[in-house]
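Hi support team,

I'm opening this ticket because the web form for multi-chain structure prediction keeps timing out on my end. I have pasted the exact lines I submitted so you can reproduce it. The total is 346 residues across two entries, so I didn't expect it to be a heavy job. Is there a limit I'm missing, or should I split the entries? Thanks in advance, R.K.
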Amino acid sequence: MKQVLIALLVTGALYSLPVQSTEVANIENVNNGGVASLRGITELDTTRKADPMKRVEKDRSPIDRDYVYQPPLIPHQTRHYEVSLNANKCLSCHSWKYAGEMGATKISVTHYQSREGQVLSDVSPRRYFCLQCHVTQADAAPLVENEFKRVDSLR
Amino acid sequence: MKLVSNFWRKLCKPSNAAVGVVIGMGFVGGILFWGAFNTGMEATNSEAFCASCHEPIVNEIKETIHYSNRSGVRAICSDCHVPHNWADKIVRKVQASKEVFAFVMGNISTEEKFYARRKHLALREWQRMKENDSQECRNCHDFDFMDFSEQGQRSVKQHSTALASGEKTCVDCHKGIAHQLPDMSDVPGWQ
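Hello R.K., no limit was hit. The queue was backed up. Here is the completed structure from your submission:
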Protein backbone atom coordinates (compact mmCIF):
# COMPACT_ATOMS: atom_id res chain seq x y z
CA MET A 1 0.00 0.00 0.00
CA LYS A 2 2.71 2.40 1.09
CA GLN A 3 4.74 1.66 -2.03
CA VAL A 4 1.79 2.35 -4.28
CA LEU A 5 1.21 5.66 -2.51
CA ILE A 6 4.80 6.72 -2.92
CA ALA A 7 4.76 5.71 -6.56
CA LEU A 8 1.67 7.81 -7.10
CA LEU A 9 3.21 10.81 -5.38
CA VAL A 10 6.36 10.55 -7.42
CA THR A 11 4.55 10.29 -10.76
CA GLY A 12 2.30 13.15 -9.67
CA ALA A 13 5.27 15.34 -8.92
CA LEU A 14 6.90 14.38 -12.22
CA TYR A 15 3.76 15.34 -14.14
CA SER A 16 3.35 18.67 -12.39
CA LEU A 17 6.85 19.82 -13.35
CA PRO A 18 6.33 20.26 -17.12
CA VAL A 19 2.87 21.69 -16.48
CA GLN A 20 4.35 24.47 -14.39
CA SER A 21 6.95 25.34 -16.94
CA THR A 22 4.42 25.56 -19.83
CA GLU A 23 2.23 27.82 -17.72
CA VAL A 24 5.05 30.27 -17.45
CA ALA A 25 5.56 30.07 -21.18
CA ASN A 26 1.84 30.70 -21.77
CA ILE A 27 1.87 33.99 -19.91
CA GLU A 28 4.61 35.21 -22.22
CA ASN A 29 2.73 34.05 -25.30
CA VAL A 30 -0.37 36.04 -24.44
CA ASN A 31 1.30 39.11 -25.85
CA ASN A 32 0.41 39.05 -29.55
CA GLY A 33 3.63 40.81 -30.50
CA GLY A 34 1.96 43.99 -31.69
CA VAL A 35 0.18 42.39 -34.63
CA ALA A 36 -2.66 44.68 -35.62
CA SER A 37 -5.63 43.85 -37.83
CA LEU A 38 -8.33 46.00 -39.38
CA ARG A 39 -10.24 45.54 -36.16
CA GLY A 40 -7.43 46.93 -33.97
CA ILE A 41 -4.97 45.27 -31.58
CA THR A 42 -6.34 42.73 -29.18
CA GLU A 43 -4.32 40.62 -26.76
CA LEU A 44 -4.85 36.93 -27.17
CA ASP A 45 -6.37 36.42 -23.74
CA THR A 46 -8.97 39.16 -24.02
CA THR A 47 -12.18 39.19 -26.01
CA ARG A 48 -12.74 42.25 -28.12
CA LYS A 49 -16.00 44.07 -27.66
CA ALA A 50 -18.29 43.32 -30.58
CA ASP A 51 -19.10 46.07 -33.07
CA PRO A 52 -22.71 47.21 -33.20
CA MET A 53 -24.75 45.23 -35.71
CA LYS A 54 -25.10 46.76 -39.16
CA ARG A 55 -28.50 47.95 -40.27
CA VAL A 56 -29.87 46.64 -43.52
CA GLU A 57 -31.32 49.23 -45.87
CA LYS A 58 -35.00 48.59 -45.96
CA ASP A 59 -36.15 49.79 -49.32
CA ARG A 60 -34.71 52.29 -51.80
CA SER A 61 -34.47 52.87 -55.52
CA PRO A 62 -32.01 50.78 -57.58
CA ILE A 63 -28.29 51.36 -57.04
CA ASP A 64 -26.13 52.38 -60.01
CA ARG A 65 -23.81 49.70 -61.32
CA ASP A 66 -20.06 50.09 -61.30
CA TYR A 67 -19.11 47.84 -64.19
CA VAL A 68 -20.78 46.13 -67.06
CA TYR A 69 -22.09 42.67 -66.19
CA GLN A 70 -22.13 43.47 -62.49
CA PRO A 71 -24.88 41.63 -60.64
CA PRO A 72 -26.93 44.62 -59.39
CA LEU A 73 -26.96 45.18 -55.63
CA ILE A 74 -30.26 44.49 -53.91
CA PRO A 75 -31.93 47.77 -52.93
CA HIS A 76 -34.30 46.20 -50.38
CA GLN A 77 -34.18 44.02 -47.27
CA THR A 78 -34.50 40.27 -47.71
CA ARG A 79 -35.22 39.10 -44.18
CA HIS A 80 -36.83 35.64 -44.11
CA TYR A 81 -37.09 35.45 -47.91
CA GLU A 82 -37.09 31.71 -48.37
CA VAL A 83 -34.98 30.31 -51.19
CA SER A 84 -35.06 26.55 -50.88
CA LEU A 85 -35.95 23.39 -52.68
CA ASN A 86 -39.61 24.16 -52.00
CA ALA A 87 -39.92 27.85 -52.75
CA ASN A 88 -38.10 30.86 -54.18
CA LYS A 89 -39.48 34.10 -52.78
CA CYS A 90 -37.31 36.26 -55.08
CA LEU A 91 -38.90 34.73 -58.17
CA SER A 92 -42.38 35.52 -56.87
CA CYS A 93 -41.51 39.13 -57.76
CA HIS A 94 -38.61 38.97 -60.22
CA SER A 95 -39.62 36.14 -62.54
CA TRP A 96 -40.87 37.09 -65.98
CA LYS A 97 -44.33 35.92 -65.04
CA TYR A 98 -44.79 38.21 -62.00
CA ALA A 99 -42.33 41.09 -62.49
CA GLY A 100 -44.90 43.32 -64.21
CA GLU A 101 -47.56 42.81 -61.58
CA MET A 102 -45.14 43.34 -58.68
CA GLY A 103 -43.31 46.30 -60.24
CA ALA A 104 -39.95 44.56 -59.95
CA THR A 105 -37.10 44.27 -62.46
CA LYS A 106 -37.32 41.18 -64.63
CA ILE A 107 -34.37 38.84 -64.28
CA SER A 108 -32.38 39.11 -67.51
CA VAL A 109 -32.15 36.35 -70.07
CA THR A 110 -28.71 35.32 -68.75
CA HIS A 111 -30.58 33.79 -65.80
CA TYR A 112 -32.12 31.28 -68.16
CA GLN A 113 -28.87 30.20 -69.77
CA SER A 114 -27.15 26.96 -69.03
CA ARG A 115 -23.42 26.78 -68.55
CA GLU A 116 -23.06 26.09 -72.29
CA GLY A 117 -25.02 29.21 -73.19
CA GLN A 118 -28.15 27.33 -74.15
CA VAL A 119 -31.35 29.19 -73.21
CA LEU A 120 -33.59 27.05 -70.98
CA SER A 121 -37.34 27.31 -70.52
CA ASP A 122 -37.05 28.15 -66.81
CA VAL A 123 -34.48 29.73 -64.48
CA SER A 124 -31.18 27.92 -64.81
CA PRO A 125 -30.17 25.93 -61.74
CA ARG A 126 -26.92 27.88 -61.56
CA ARG A 127 -28.91 31.09 -61.12
CA TYR A 128 -31.45 29.74 -58.64
CA PHE A 129 -29.72 30.86 -55.44
CA CYS A 130 -29.93 34.59 -56.03
CA LEU A 131 -27.99 35.67 -52.95
CA GLN A 132 -24.87 33.96 -54.29
CA CYS A 133 -24.39 36.94 -56.60
CA HIS A 134 -26.77 39.66 -55.45
CA VAL A 135 -26.31 41.15 -52.00
CA THR A 136 -28.44 43.19 -49.64
CA GLN A 137 -26.93 46.49 -48.52
CA ALA A 138 -26.07 47.59 -44.99
CA ASP A 139 -24.75 50.83 -43.53
CA ALA A 140 -21.24 49.39 -43.30
CA ALA A 141 -18.46 51.88 -44.04
CA PRO A 142 -15.59 50.26 -45.99
CA LEU A 143 -12.72 49.11 -43.75
CA VAL A 144 -10.10 49.97 -46.38
CA GLU A 145 -10.01 52.65 -49.01
CA ASN A 146 -11.32 51.52 -52.38
CA GLU A 147 -9.67 52.96 -55.48
CA PHE A 148 -11.85 51.18 -57.98
CA LYS A 149 -12.81 53.43 -60.89
CA ARG A 150 -15.81 52.83 -63.12
CA VAL A 151 -15.26 52.12 -66.79
CA ASP A 152 -15.60 55.21 -68.95
CA SER A 153 -18.97 54.26 -70.32
CA LEU A 154 -20.48 54.19 -66.81
CA ARG A 155 -18.82 57.30 -65.42
CA MET B 1 -88.57 4.16 -16.89
CA LYS B 2 -91.22 5.10 -14.38
CA LEU B 3 -88.65 7.09 -12.47
CA VAL B 4 -87.83 9.14 -15.54
CA SER B 5 -91.41 9.90 -16.43
CA ASN B 6 -92.10 10.84 -12.82
CA PHE B 7 -89.21 13.24 -12.81
CA TRP B 8 -90.31 14.65 -16.12
CA ARG B 9 -93.80 15.22 -14.83
CA LYS B 10 -92.38 17.02 -11.82
CA LEU B 11 -90.35 19.25 -14.08
CA CYS B 12 -93.43 19.95 -16.21
CA LYS B 13 -95.61 20.83 -13.30
CA PRO B 14 -93.35 22.41 -10.72
CA SER B 15 -94.63 24.07 -7.60
CA ASN B 16 -93.88 27.77 -7.39
CA ALA B 17 -90.97 27.21 -5.04
CA ALA B 18 -89.44 24.65 -7.39
CA VAL B 19 -89.48 27.10 -10.30
CA GLY B 20 -87.23 29.39 -8.31
CA VAL B 21 -84.87 26.55 -7.44
CA VAL B 22 -84.65 25.32 -11.02
CA ILE B 23 -84.03 28.78 -12.38
CA GLY B 24 -81.50 29.48 -9.65
CA MET B 25 -79.66 26.23 -10.29
CA GLY B 26 -79.66 26.91 -14.00
CA PHE B 27 -78.23 30.36 -13.37
CA VAL B 28 -75.41 29.19 -11.09
CA GLY B 29 -74.68 26.22 -13.33
CA GLY B 30 -74.57 28.54 -16.30
CA ILE B 31 -72.02 30.78 -14.66
CA LEU B 32 -69.87 27.82 -13.62
CA PHE B 33 -70.06 26.32 -17.09
CA TRP B 34 -69.23 29.65 -18.75
CA GLY B 35 -66.23 30.16 -16.52
CA ALA B 36 -64.86 26.64 -16.99
CA PHE B 37 -65.42 26.91 -20.73
CA ASN B 38 -63.50 30.15 -20.97
CA THR B 39 -60.60 28.93 -18.85
CA GLY B 40 -60.46 25.82 -21.00
CA MET B 41 -60.29 27.98 -24.10
CA GLU B 42 -57.45 30.05 -22.63
CA ALA B 43 -55.43 26.98 -21.63
CA THR B 44 -55.69 25.48 -25.11
CA ASN B 45 -54.49 28.73 -26.67
CA SER B 46 -51.01 28.61 -25.14
CA GLU B 47 -47.98 28.04 -27.34
CA ALA B 48 -46.69 25.20 -25.19
CA PHE B 49 -49.96 23.41 -25.81
CA CYS B 50 -49.61 23.70 -29.59
CA ALA B 51 -45.96 22.68 -29.34
CA SER B 52 -46.93 19.34 -27.86
CA CYS B 53 -48.06 18.27 -31.34
CA HIS B 54 -46.38 20.83 -33.63
CA GLU B 55 -42.76 20.65 -32.47
CA PRO B 56 -41.09 21.33 -35.88
CA ILE B 57 -43.22 24.44 -36.41
CA VAL B 58 -42.45 25.93 -33.03
CA ASN B 59 -38.73 25.47 -33.71
CA GLU B 60 -38.66 27.21 -37.09
CA ILE B 61 -40.83 30.15 -36.07
CA LYS B 62 -38.06 31.59 -33.89
CA GLU B 63 -36.29 33.43 -36.71
CA THR B 64 -39.41 35.10 -38.08
CA ILE B 65 -40.66 38.64 -37.50
CA HIS B 66 -43.57 37.56 -35.36
CA TYR B 67 -41.28 35.86 -32.86
CA SER B 68 -38.58 38.49 -32.46
CA ASN B 69 -38.69 42.09 -33.61
CA ARG B 70 -37.68 45.59 -32.56
CA SER B 71 -40.90 46.34 -30.70
CA GLY B 72 -41.08 43.11 -28.72
CA VAL B 73 -44.70 42.54 -29.62
CA ARG B 74 -45.31 38.91 -30.44
CA ALA B 75 -47.93 36.99 -32.34
CA ILE B 76 -48.36 33.53 -30.87
CA CYS B 77 -49.91 30.54 -32.60
CA SER B 78 -53.43 31.28 -31.46
CA ASP B 79 -53.28 34.90 -32.63
CA CYS B 80 -53.11 33.66 -36.20
CA HIS B 81 -54.89 30.37 -35.94
CA VAL B 82 -57.88 30.89 -33.66
CA PRO B 83 -60.28 33.61 -34.74
CA HIS B 84 -60.91 36.16 -31.98
CA ASN B 85 -64.49 36.52 -33.04
CA TRP B 86 -66.56 34.59 -30.48
CA ALA B 87 -68.77 32.63 -32.90
CA ASP B 88 -65.84 31.79 -35.17
CA LYS B 89 -63.86 30.72 -32.12
CA ILE B 90 -66.29 28.00 -31.19
CA VAL B 91 -66.57 26.80 -34.78
CA ARG B 92 -62.79 26.60 -34.95
CA LYS B 93 -62.59 24.66 -31.69
CA VAL B 94 -65.11 22.15 -32.89
CA GLN B 95 -63.15 21.77 -36.11
CA ALA B 96 -60.04 21.32 -34.01
CA SER B 97 -61.55 18.27 -32.35
CA LYS B 98 -60.91 16.74 -35.78
CA GLU B 99 -57.22 17.53 -35.22
CA VAL B 100 -57.25 15.44 -32.07
CA PHE B 101 -58.67 12.61 -34.15
CA ALA B 102 -55.93 13.14 -36.76
CA PHE B 103 -53.42 13.11 -33.93
CA VAL B 104 -54.70 9.78 -32.66
CA MET B 105 -54.41 8.52 -36.23
CA GLY B 106 -50.80 9.78 -36.24
CA ASN B 107 -51.14 11.98 -39.35
CA ILE B 108 -48.19 14.19 -38.44
CA SER B 109 -46.65 12.18 -35.62
CA THR B 110 -43.12 12.30 -37.10
CA GLU B 111 -41.29 15.12 -38.88
CA GLU B 112 -41.27 13.12 -42.12
CA LYS B 113 -45.02 12.62 -41.97
CA PHE B 114 -45.51 16.30 -41.21
CA TYR B 115 -43.40 17.49 -44.15
CA ALA B 116 -45.24 15.10 -46.44
CA ARG B 117 -48.60 16.44 -45.30
CA ARG B 118 -47.59 20.08 -44.93
CA LYS B 119 -48.74 21.22 -48.37
CA HIS B 120 -52.20 19.86 -47.71
CA LEU B 121 -52.44 21.63 -44.35
CA ALA B 122 -51.07 24.90 -45.70
CA LEU B 123 -53.59 24.91 -48.56
CA ARG B 124 -56.36 24.42 -46.03
CA GLU B 125 -55.09 27.28 -43.92
CA TRP B 126 -54.76 29.67 -46.90
CA GLN B 127 -58.26 28.74 -47.98
CA ARG B 128 -59.62 29.47 -44.51
CA MET B 129 -57.87 32.83 -44.30
CA LYS B 130 -58.95 33.72 -47.81
CA GLU B 131 -62.55 33.08 -46.82
CA ASN B 132 -62.41 35.27 -43.71
CA ASP B 133 -60.36 37.98 -45.52
CA SER B 134 -57.34 37.31 -43.25
CA GLN B 135 -59.29 38.26 -40.15
CA GLU B 136 -56.45 37.11 -37.84
CA CYS B 137 -53.90 39.39 -39.48
CA ARG B 138 -56.32 42.29 -39.38
CA ASN B 139 -56.86 41.85 -35.64
CA CYS B 140 -53.39 43.35 -35.28
CA HIS B 141 -52.67 45.01 -38.63
CA ASP B 142 -55.55 47.34 -39.39
CA PHE B 143 -55.45 48.60 -42.96
CA ASP B 144 -57.16 51.84 -41.96
CA PHE B 145 -54.23 52.73 -39.73
CA MET B 146 -51.38 51.82 -42.07
CA ASP B 147 -49.25 54.90 -42.65
CA PHE B 148 -47.98 54.60 -46.21
CA SER B 149 -45.37 57.28 -45.64
CA GLU B 150 -43.74 54.96 -43.09
CA GLN B 151 -43.80 51.88 -45.31
CA GLY B 152 -41.27 50.85 -47.93
CA GLN B 153 -41.90 51.64 -51.59
CA ARG B 154 -42.63 48.04 -52.42
CA SER B 155 -45.17 47.75 -49.61
CA VAL B 156 -46.98 50.95 -50.58
CA LYS B 157 -47.19 49.91 -54.22
CA GLN B 158 -49.03 46.71 -53.36
CA HIS B 159 -51.01 47.91 -50.36
CA SER B 160 -52.41 51.00 -52.06
CA THR B 161 -53.58 49.00 -55.07
CA ALA B 162 -54.42 45.30 -54.79
CA LEU B 163 -55.02 45.39 -51.03
CA ALA B 164 -56.94 48.67 -50.91
CA SER B 165 -59.28 47.56 -53.69
CA GLY B 166 -60.00 44.32 -51.89
CA GLU B 167 -58.82 42.32 -54.89
CA LYS B 168 -56.33 40.45 -52.72
CA THR B 169 -56.05 39.65 -49.03
CA CYS B 170 -52.99 39.44 -46.76
CA VAL B 171 -52.23 35.74 -47.22
CA ASP B 172 -52.41 36.03 -51.02
CA CYS B 173 -49.13 37.96 -50.88
CA HIS B 174 -47.69 37.07 -47.46
CA LYS B 175 -47.47 33.32 -47.67
CA GLY B 176 -44.88 31.78 -45.39
CA ILE B 177 -44.84 34.84 -43.12
CA ALA B 178 -44.49 32.68 -40.02
CA HIS B 179 -43.39 29.28 -41.34
CA GLN B 180 -41.22 27.59 -43.89
CA LEU B 181 -43.10 26.83 -47.05
CA PRO B 182 -44.14 23.53 -48.61
CA ASP B 183 -43.54 22.84 -52.33
CA MET B 184 -44.87 26.01 -54.00
CA SER B 185 -44.45 25.06 -57.67
CA ASP B 186 -48.18 25.07 -58.47
CA VAL B 187 -49.36 27.76 -56.04
CA PRO B 188 -50.58 30.97 -57.73
CA GLY B 189 -48.04 33.78 -57.40
CA TRP B 190 -45.10 31.39 -57.08
CA GLN B 191 -42.97 29.31 -59.38
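A quick check on our side: The CA atoms of residues 7 and 13 of chain B lie 10 Å apart. Let us know if the file doesn't open in your viewer.
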